[in-house]
Amino acid sequence: MNNLSGLEETAMSHIETYFETKLVKPYYGMIHQRALSLTRNFQDAEDLTQQTFLNAFLALKKGQFDGKNPKSWLMQIVRNNYLNSYRSYKRYSTAIDSLTYISPFFQMPECLFYIPEGRLGQKIAC
How many domains does the chain fold into? Predict the structure, then answer.
């Protein structure tokens, strides 16, 4: 059983090295730029980029990547992650009258939660 554990550790070490040298270092900037163009928000792009590389690592660990065209593979992951978050947001969000476009990563400003005494039911500007 110890040999199996040693083999697993060696395989995991190779996967981590491959992931870092062949996927993260060469493609991080490009994936982040794509995420930024999709979300139009720096913090959301960071989250989307991180989620993309997490999904890529998990897929790599499961053997779901054949090594061909990593750029295309990562771009597909970032696109799918964005679409999934957008669909999820649309499914669980409520409509806000004053906004015409809502990013899937939209966070409601804190000022909308504060309603001064006597102004219940009125819109409050931020």
Answer: 1
